[in-house]
């Protein structure tokens, strides 16, 4: 059972929104007491996902939450867009899959950086990706 | 538009990245560097990333690209000072940047560049001789 | 309730305690009377004091909180002292037996006896689950402490020469451990300005594709920093396993001994060791 301790919303519309957003993620990670390695992994994962949000989702919003599962604290990020959606999620999660110009290192690699990873997508309606990184990673 | 400064030091180009990298900035750096290599006929490119705390797959690819492009244009390149947390994260992402030369710091990076350039020049010298 | 079960139980406290202890002794030949008697006494008192007309129907009733706390305490301490899981469960089940036996002597109506036995059963079974949870927590505390100790002892980074560090890895290399080893190693490489790291795995008992993956990750990370990694301590069995599993180590420098790895390191650094004239000097 996850309890939200703090929550911040971000609108991601332009590339300029990315750096302030990353800084907020870093603040949340520091507040939760994460070590440098876990902070780096979380912010890097956030960077990957926010790029997807901009490039494929047409922009969207991110919730930056500090949460607890009763045993330890962590950071949860929820990326949601109203873009075209992903037709075949299983394929997207396979290492090596790609659309657009980038290589297929996006989603599967990002998943390895965090503790919990969930993706929901409906073609024509949008995509929501939720990740959680606990303090002790 | 923010651009990362490129310093000329003799035959070398020196780039120190001290701000948070984002996509546009990284792409600009890629094209700026390639143009500078041509303009100054540079033999070596050194990129100092000791202040960079986040490198994701996009930036990682740009760094790889810079290495290849420089080589195609006849220059050696080296990336120095990667932070341990960044290295571990890149490896987890599956980006090992195998085509890119790396060194611990600027000093060692310069040494590496010099030896690579010498080696290369030795090679092309032999090659020229052989075609005679 | 006509026959007041809770009343009966409260009155028979001494009998219950005695019967319970007898059952505990029957189950466990190493029973230490003094030790356990005090714990059991505390528990019986707390339980009977808490039990009443209303909460006999509700195993989660607030009134039982204190009883649960006492039980947790007993259970965690037993786990740390090395009691078995069975002994922990039996503790509660023998108590239930004692309670129900005493009850059956004084409640005449079979239907009533059955009904109240079920209620009490529910309460005690819930407590039995609690003792298991307490037991597990106790064991986890022990494991956690030991893990911390092991992690501290087993990842030393040794500066064997100017620019060369060695990391003898002892014990299994799982992903959690690999993180710690990698962090430590990379940090040391930066701090000492070393360009060569020797990872000695002669102390790693089993190498499978997962362990190999961890090693390859460590080598990749080292290279990103600008240093090189040599893996030494490759036993013949490991070489066989690696080949049979089809693991590709072609990009990694491997040696069978730390000594030969050091020799390789010297070569890479363009260093030579010369013998001076004269014999072994013993100060």
Low-confidence spans of chain C: none
CA-CA gap between termini of chain A: 18 Å
CATH overall fold name of chain A: Heat Shock Protein 90
The main β sheet of chain C shows up as: 5 strands, mixed
The most extensive interface, with participating residues per chain, is: A-B, 24 and 21 residues
Q: CATH class of chain A, anyone?
A: Alpha Beta
CATH architecture of chain A: 2-Layer Sandwich
CATH topology grouping of the largest domain in chain C: Globin-like
Strand neighbour order, sheet with most strands of chain C: 1-2-3-4-5
The gist of it:
The complex is a heterotrimer of chains A (137), B (132) and C (283). With 137 residues, chain A is α+β, with helices and mostly antiparallel strands.
Describe this structure in words.
The complex is a heterotrimer of chains A (137), B (132) and C (283). Chain A has 137 residues and is an alpha+beta fold. Chain A has four helices and five strands, in the order E-H-H-E-E-H-H-E-E. Chain B is of the alpha/beta class. Chain B has one domain: Transcription Regulator spoIIAA, CATH 3.30.750. In chain B, 52% of the residues lie in helices and 16% in strands. A five-stranded mixed β-sheet of chain B has the order 1-2-3-4-5, sandwiched between helices. Chain C contains ten helices and five strands, in the order ααααααββαβαβαβα. In chain C, strand 2, helix 7 and strand 3 form a beta-alpha-beta unit. Chain C is elongated, with a radius of gyration of 32 Å. Chain C starts with a helix and ends in a 15-residue tail after the last helix. Chains in contact: A-B, B-C. Chains A and B meet through helix 1, helix 2 and helix 4 of A and helix 2 and helix 3 of B.
